[in-house]
Design goal:
By secondary structure, the chain is an alpha/beta fold. The chain contains 12 helices and 20 strands. It has 2 domains: 104 residues, Urease, subunit C, domain 1 (Roll); 320 residues, Metal-dependent hydrolases (TIM Barrel, Alpha-Beta Barrel). Bound molecules: N-(aminocarbonyl)-beta-alanine (URP) and zinc ion (2 copies).
């Protein structure tokens, strides 16, 4: 027997990239793809993918792990359980947020977040920043320096008292993004409208979880999306509107694109598979599980989101994994038992289910092509945050981050997931596929049955400039 040429060969793969689908063997050495072709030489390890689609490992460019919260609230997933869960669902790169608290230096927030990640991650990770206190020091020194060091994206909030910026502050940070080539992500909901509606609802005793959706109707998102677009136009900088929930925001983004403005958009599984009814049709507290912002809308809006995924409106499909236990005072029941909706921590878990949901209900159901799936879940997020071509593709020289898909019926059950959250909003949902293998830099981290842990194997990635331009196709309306 000859000495193996490769560390690993994946044979007979049906390789899908954002642009092509082709049959090939994949040769891996030192964690990188070194050859694509037919009848490759031997590998030390071989995996036969006959009849199976192989896609790039997912890049989940919007997730929250071990993000400091106001006591008693605490995230249930840190870098260990969060990246474990990611790997078992086919995601091999995560980009959570180093969040600046008001009064804190941005540098201190980044240093703290590195300590939280160090030695714990099973897959590679980068950081976005959250800018909540854009002092002159942050704008002139910290942010430019951090961008140069590989933190090339940051999120700003138009809502949440502890995070929100006013329009002048947003203009200031957008100007830094323009000058230094960073990607600005915007959470677009009008804070004053939400506060006004919340006070009215609470005064009327309407405090059950379902009223969360009443306090954040679509116009609140529409107005803020339009304002964010106008602010970006004034500064002349591309922006990314994150977690777009439905028609009103989509129309604003389509309008902006029609004007030739560089406005990117992200959506998430909750806007395809949940509706406001999941927050409760009566006053039951169970709907707290699905409290997130913006809230899920209705079936008609789900169709709007599907159309935007199919026709190129959306650039990214992310989980917005925000892990809070349901049955815990540090989670969805803050302060003990049943809290008014305005006290329920926002967000739902979804790192592990993001890729299988879109593969099953998007690709296999004929709503989006396989290549578009790859673009949305891996290639575009890698490009948007300057990680491409190392991440997000299947190409010689790139990291061997790969998913081999098993097309078989699967029922989502929380006790089979690998996060540390005590529920999934998708409990009982029937899927038609799940990863048979996830490989992270050539190492099998998930084999369809078992997770192969190695905390610390995940490396910190410094991001480059976004390479997502030119803009995606213009929309059809
Ligand atoms: O409800 C949400 N989306 N929670 C996570 C934080 C955020 O705004 O993305
Ligand atoms: Zn947000
Ligand atoms: Zn988020």
């Amino acid at each position: 027997m000859s000495i193996p040429t490769f560390d690993l060969v994946i044979r007979n793969a049906l390789v899908a990239t954002a642009s092509d689908t082709f049959a090939a063997d994949i040769g891996v050495n030192g964690g990188r793809i070194v050859q694509l072709g037919s009848s490759l030489a031997n590998g030390k390890r071989e995996i036969d993918a006959l009849g199976r689609v192989v896609t790039p490992g997912g890049v989940d460019a919007h997730c929250h792990l071990d993000q400091p919260m106001q006591a008693p609230v605490r995230m249930a997933d840190g870098f260990d359980s969060g990246t474990r869960s990611a790997a078992c669902g086919g995601t091999t790169t995560v980009i959570p947020f180093a969040a600046q608290a008001k009064g804190q230096s941005l540098r201190a927030a980044v240093d703290d977040y590195h300590r939280r990640a160090e030695g714990r991650a099973h897959v590679d990770y980068a950081f976005h920043l959250i800018v909540s206190d854009p002092t002159p020091q942050v704008l002139r020194e910290e942010l430019p320096a951090l961008i140069a060091e590989g933190y090339t994206s940051f999120k700003v909030y138009m809502t949440y008292d502890d995070l929100k910026l006013d329009d002048g502050q947003i203009l200031d940070v957008l100007d830094v993004a323009r000058q230094h080539g960073a990607m600005a992500m915007i959470h677009a909901e009008n804070a004053d409208c939400i506060e006004w509606l919340t006070k009215k609802l609470e005064a009327a005793g309407r405090t059950a979880p379902r009223f969360h959706a009443h306090s954040r109707p679509m116009l609140v998102e529409r107005e803020a999306t339009h304002r964010a677009i106008a602010l970006a136009e004034l500064v002349d900088v591309p922006i990314l509107i994150v977690h777009v929930s439905g028609r009103d925001a989509v129309e604003q983004i389509r309008w902006a694109r029609g004007q030739g403005l560089k406005v990117f958009a992200e959506t998430c599984p909750q806007y395809l598979f949940l509706t406001a009814e999941d927050l409760g049709i009566d006053n039951s507290y169970a709907g707290a599980r699905c409290v997130c912002s913006p809230p899920p809308r209705d079936k008609g809006n789900q169709e709007v989101i599907w159309n935007g995924l199919a026709d190129g409106l959306f650039t990214l499909f992310s989980s917005d994994h925000a892990p809070f236990d349901y049955d815990a005072p540090e989670g969805k029941k803050p302060g003990g038992e049943e809290a008014p909706f305005s006290h329920i921590p926002n967000g739902i878990p979804g790192l592990e289910t993001r890729m299988p949901l879109l593969y099953s209900k998007g690709v296999l159901a004929g709503r989006i092509t396989l290549n578009r799936f790859v673009e949305l879940t891996a290639t575009n997020p890698a490009k948007a945050y300057g990680l491409h071509p190392r991440k997000g593709s299947i190409a010689v020289g790139g990291d061997a981050d790969l998913v081999i898909w098993d097309e078989r019926p699967v029922t989502i059950r929380n006790d089979r997931l690998h996060h540390d959250v005590d529920y999934t909003p998708y409990e009982g949902m029937q899927l038609q596929a799940w990863p048979a293998f996830t490989l992270a830099r050539g190492e099998v981290v998930w084999d369809g049955q078992a997770f192969h842990p190695r905390p610390g194997r995940g490396q910190f990635l410094r991001c480059g400039e976004p390479t997502i331009l030119p803009l995606p196709r213009k929309s059809s309306i």
